[in-house]
Each structure stands twice: as structure tokens, then as C-alpha cells.
Amino acid sequence: MLGKVTVTSRNQYQNTINEIERRFVFIGKTPKTELYGVVTHLNAQTDIEALFSSTPAPSSQDAPEQAESADAVKPKKAKSSVELPPVVPDDNSFLRDVLTAAQINAGANWTASVVGLDSNGDWKAALDLANKQSSYEAVVLTDFVTSKSQLEEVKSKIALIESQQARFMFAMTCSQPVASSEAWADYMTRSASLVDGVKAARVMCIPTLFGNDIGILAGRLCIRSVTVADSPMRVKTGPLLSMGTMSVDKDGKPFPIENLTVLDANRFSVPQTYPGEDGWYWADGNTLDSETGDYKVIENLRVVLKACRRVYKIAIPTIADRSLNSSPNSIARNKNLYMKPLLEMSAPVIINNVRFPGEIEPPKDSAVEINWMSDIKTEIYITVRPINSQKDITIGVGLDLSKNPTGE
Predict the structure, then answer these.
(1) What is the DSSP letter of 108?
(2) Do 242 and 100 touch, CB atoms closer than 8 A?
């Protein structure tokens, strides 16, 4: 036998998974034809006002090199004004205002994408187009939902994307603002009927009270000074920015603040104020999960979806890998393998000697369980434990009128 030396490189799939958290795609109707059928990427430096501007920026090619007189220039101006697309401020402003509110509230290092739709545009096709180019944590649908069937359609599309593309996403929708012919009592009845009986843990519905509400919440969920495990209710994150104007009903009355409690109880996600405290803040980031569901608030859903994305990438290289077997050593090794993303998510951060908790509780040994169903089928159960935060604080203040027996 002749001696042989064989050297091969082995890929252990140990690198860091790309982060898609806090990256949202916005989809909605707009007369801005340049946004149709394309994915336009945005960041914190994007001039959104210019992006939606109906007037093209002047170009040196359009300007005459030398105008002999004022009359020689006038025909060029007239021709340019005729060729401009028609301006539709009411239609064009909503998607623009939503993106602007998201950008301002998200702050530094915000990234997002937008796909514009024409009057007959299909948001589902637009989402498929966006997913071919990038990965997103959420889709923000800026066209108003007006029926339960539309919410069910969103729910079904998110489920289909997960089953076909392994994209673990959630969706944000917004309901119609109060109509000019409606009183607030009629609006509340209509809003309650919209979500009644809908069970969609991956879908949020935001009422349009200020005109840009969904953009404000989308931005707040993307702030990098907090984690995906933090509630949008967190007051230390700061007040909401760039609030629009409060809507009024047919009688010119502004929205009654006490009705926010009713909308919240109906699983809408709403802004709120604190008596004696300036500024607007957000309440719970409600989803349309059932009353007993685990994902009634967005922060619980986001940490689970983040864990899903990470363990999915771990599972693919282990297909037909005999190092994953029922032996005690293999089970221990692979439990550690699937425990890694949980340990990363639970890592705390120390800032100025103050310990800020991670996104989840440090996992216990039972957080990953491997069960052998047959010689070719394995089931792995992973549990993440969120860290609770106080949202209802009651303080009692009383007097101590007892005498000090020493007289001091």
C-alpha cells in the first residue's frame, strides 16, 4: 500500500447570522410612479420629502447654456411645467408621512425599504418582490384595512411566507380614520366590529388617530437603543416624535382620550398620555392574538421569531449529519449547539456599571430538549423565557404618626 495524505477544508457553519431585526418593508399606494414595481431602500439619511416630491430637481442639461433674452427662456419653462406629473397631495402624502414618522422615531442607523403600489396594486406581490431582494422582520401595510377578510388575508400571507420561504415575519396594518360623516361613537362601533373574532398572532392593527400613527409605532419598534424584547410602552425610550394632528369627528370634536382604553381592550395598539406628564407615549404593542395566547404583545412575539430565525439556520447543516445521533455525547453536543442563540440573546450589557438584561432569561438545561421519534426523524423543542417588565405600578403613600419613644 502506498502512503497517502488527504487534506480537505471543513465548513463548520459557525459564523454569525445576519441580523434582520428592526428592518421593515413599507408597502402602500402612491401616485409616485417611480416607486412602482421596485424596492427602494431607505436609511436615516434618506431625504423622504425629496423622494416623494412631484417636481424633479433641476438639471444642468435642462438649463440653457446661454439665454439671449427672457423671452427665449419662457417657452422652455412652459414646456417643463406641462410635462410634470399631476400632483395628488392627499394620496401622495400618507405613505410619505408614515415613512417620515418611522424615520424620525427610529433614530440613528434606521434602515427600511418601500414598495409603492398603483391604484390596482397587489401588496402580496409587492411583498414577494421585496423578499426576493432582502429579508425583513416585518411588513408595514399603509393602505387601510376595512374588513375582517382583509385582516385574514394578511394573516394567511404571513403564514404562507413562513411555510414557503422560511421567513419569520409579522405584519402591521392600520384601520381607517374617522369619516367626515361619523361621530366618535359610530367610529368606536366600527372599529370594534373590524377586529371582533379575528385571531392573528402575527398581525397588529393600529387605529389612525393622528394620521401617521402606524409610522410612529414602526419607528419606535426599530430604535437601536433598546432591544426587540422591549415594549413600545417603555417610557425611558422617550416621548413619541412628529405626532400628526388629532382627528375630529363630524361635529368637530377631537378624539375622546378615554376611548383609548376601549381600543386597547379591543386589541388595537394605541398611543397614550400620562396625567401631569407632557408628551405622548405608546401603550402595549398589541397583536390580534386570542385572549389566552402567548403572543398578545409584540415583544413576546419578536423574541420568539428571532429565536426561530436563528435555530433554523443551525438546523439546515445538521440534515443527514451522523454526528447528530441518539448517543449521550451527541445529544449533549447538539443541545449546546442549539443553546448558543439563546445564550447570545440572554447576554446582558453593562453601561456605566448598570446591568441591562438581555432579551430573554438565561436558558436552563431544559430549554433545549431533543427527542428521537424514529431512526430518521428528530424533534427538538426550544423554550425562550422573556424577562417581565412592570406596566401597572400602584404606589400607596401614608403617614407615620407614631412618636419616637426616645424623644429624639
Answers:
(1) T
(2) yes
Q: What is the pTM of this model?
A: 0.87
Residue 128 lies in a domain: yes
Domain edge (last residue) among 257, 282, 307: 282
- For residue 65, what pLDDT is reported? 40
114 and 242 share one domain: yes
Write the DSSP string, 178-220: PPTT--HHHHHHHHHHHHTT--BTTEEEE--SSS-HHHHHHHH
CATH of the domain at 40: 3.40.50
More confident residue, 244 or 303: 303
Q: What is the DSSP string of 291-313?
A: TT-TTSBHHHHHHHHHHHHHHHH
Query: Residue 73: which pLDDT band, with cuts at 50, 70 and 90?
Result: very low
Q: Indicate the residue type of 331.
A: I
- Domain hosting 147: range is 24-54+88-282
What is the per-residue DSSP string for 302-370?
HHHHHHHHHHHHHHGGGTT-TTSSSSHHHHHHHHHHHHHHHHHHH--EEETTEEEP-SBPPPPGGGEEE
* Radius of gyration in angstroms for the set of CA atoms belonging to the chain, rounded to a whole number: 27
d(CA 37, CA 262): 39
pLDDT over 70, % of the chain: 89
pLDDT at residue 74, rounded to an integer: 37
291: in domain: no
Report residue 22 as a C-alpha cell: 428592526
Q: Exposure of 114 by Cβ count < 10 A (0-12 exposed, 13-18 middle, 19+ buried)?
A: buried
Which three cell numbers mark 275?
Answer: 396625567
